[in-house]
Amino acid sequence: MGILNTYNNTNSRDFLFMQTKFLLEESQMPKYWYNLQADLPEPLPAVLHPGTQKPVEPSDLEPLFPMALIEQEVTTEREIEIPEPVRDVYNLWRPAPLYRAHRLEKALGTPAKIFYKYEGVSPAGSHKPNTAIPQAFYNREAGIRTLTTETGAGQWGTSLSFAGSLFDIDVTVFQVRVSYNQKPYRRAVMETYGAKCVASPSELTEFGRKVLAENPDHTGSLGIAISEAVELAVQDPNTKYALGSVLNHVLLHQSIIGLEAMQQMEMADCWPDVIVGCTGGGSNFAGIAFPFMGHALRGGEKSRIVAVEPSACPTLTRGKYAYDYGDTAHMTPLTKMHTLGSGFTPPGFHAGGLRYHGMAPLVSHAKELGLFDAVSYTQRECFEAGVLFAKNEGIVPAPEANHAVKGAIDEALRCKREGKEEVILFNLCGHGHFDMAAYTSYFAGELSDHEYDEQELAMALSGLPSVNA
Ligand SMILES: Cc1ncc(COP(=O)(O)O)c(C=O)c1O
């Protein structure tokens, strides 16, 4: 029977189960972001001043962020309206599609239904513009003319550069050196948007010069790049700093992913039994998971939620839940989070966006409350999963996203073993078009896997600040 006949002979529910894309109209794009803080059974631990170790006041954060973002950082309101100019830009690529991975399901021989939310349709190729756009908007509203930032994978630097060009803000990006060397085209894209991109550690800042004096070949880390960006921002009242992950307001902006996915899962007449996301600083994971988590906390259906991280930077699975600095130079406030120690430099493995020593405090807190599970995988098994996904679904995932793909595949294989028809939803947070050098290294057998022994981890953690909180 031809494919048209097959469709003609199916009823609408069968058709839904054969459908591949679940698309929302622009008019259906959420008008509010969702804030998990409103539904938490226990509030977040306080953020502490790095000097006094007393809870920070909003004014302490003013050298770094505009007041609108500081207010979003601390609010416990459930819904925050997305400003119209932000929604207007979101319309360039949002609502993002939700796909049913029919071909991957078939390749795995699983009875599970696999759905993925695809964030690679944004101009930068990932979820990062979801927060870059509002951050640039609120800074511009506050009269800010220059933003500094860090980037690991290059995705965030690209996103903020794009946002800067739309809102007439100059952007300086400190790109972790290993990623700067591996991805020259990311830099070219940032420059196309008019931004300045510098390899970190750099000679531009006092802290960069100090790191280079100790080790001229330092490959860099997100912690060091953050210190450099913060150092420049605090020196000039017209310059502020923007962070691409970790902070509450970033997670808030990313909630649009899960809010759209909820509508799309309803369109598919399914609800996820399992939700999977990869975690670097925690923002794309929170984006897909928090709206569902909040739904369950308010008495709705409960999904099992799984965070996937690299075993070379195992923050959630092997880090300590403690107060720590967000950067290597200890200029940022102290937050309670899962951390490997702010001096931790992960090996130069390719998932550059997952190389952060800490985890979003809100994600860490949710983990402590038992609201989700965390697993870790080595990079080679993640590339293997990404290649299987690409061969069946066509999209070449970013190396970071491969961790979520691997997590979803493992869940689908569990369903196969247990004969369960569960619904799995994962966040395909970005494409890998700028990461082909990493794929080439993988195909050439040049990638190695790194697991830390307890002694190495203990050493990295020995520098944690002692905090009486
Ligand atoms: C494609 C992609 N996925 C994931 C991440 C990790 O960040 P987060 O955990 O904040 O989503 C990054 C960070 O650069 C990224 O570029």
UniProtKB/TrEMBL annotation:
Domain Tryptophan synthase beta chain-like PALP, residue spans: 92-430
GO molecular function, one term: tryptophan synthase activity
PROSITE patterns the record matches: TRP_SYNTHASE_BETA
Cofactor: pyridoxal 5'-phosphate
Metabolic or biological pathway: Amino-acid biosynthesis; L-tryptophan biosynthesis; L-tryptophan from chorismate: step 5/5
SUPFAM superfamilies: Tryptophan synthase beta subunit-like PLP-dependent enzymes
Keywords: Amino-acid biosynthesis, Aromatic amino acid biosynthesis, Lyase, Pyridoxal phosphate, Tryptophan biosynthesis
Residues bearing the modification N6-(pyridoxal phosphate)lysine: K128
Pfam families found in the cross-reference section: PALP (PF00291)
InterPro entries found in the cross-reference section: Trp_synth_b-like (IPR006316), Trp_synth_b_CS (IPR006653), Trp_synth_beta/beta-like (IPR023026), TrpB-like_PALP (IPR001926), TrpB-like_PALP_sf (IPR036052)
GO CC, one annotated term: cytoplasm
EC number(s) reported in the record: 4.2.1.20
Catalytic activity: (1S,2R)-1-C-(indol-3-yl)glycerol 3-phosphate + L-serine = D-glyceraldehyde 3-phosphate + L-tryptophan + H2O
Role: The beta subunit is responsible for the synthesis of L-tryptophan from indole and L-serine.
HAMAP family: Trp_synth_beta (MF_00133)
Similarity comment: family membership: Belongs to the TrpB family.
Subunit structure: Tetramer of two alpha and two beta chains.
Record's protein name: Tryptophan synthase beta chain
Origin species: Marinobacter salsuginis
Gene expressing this chain: trpB_2
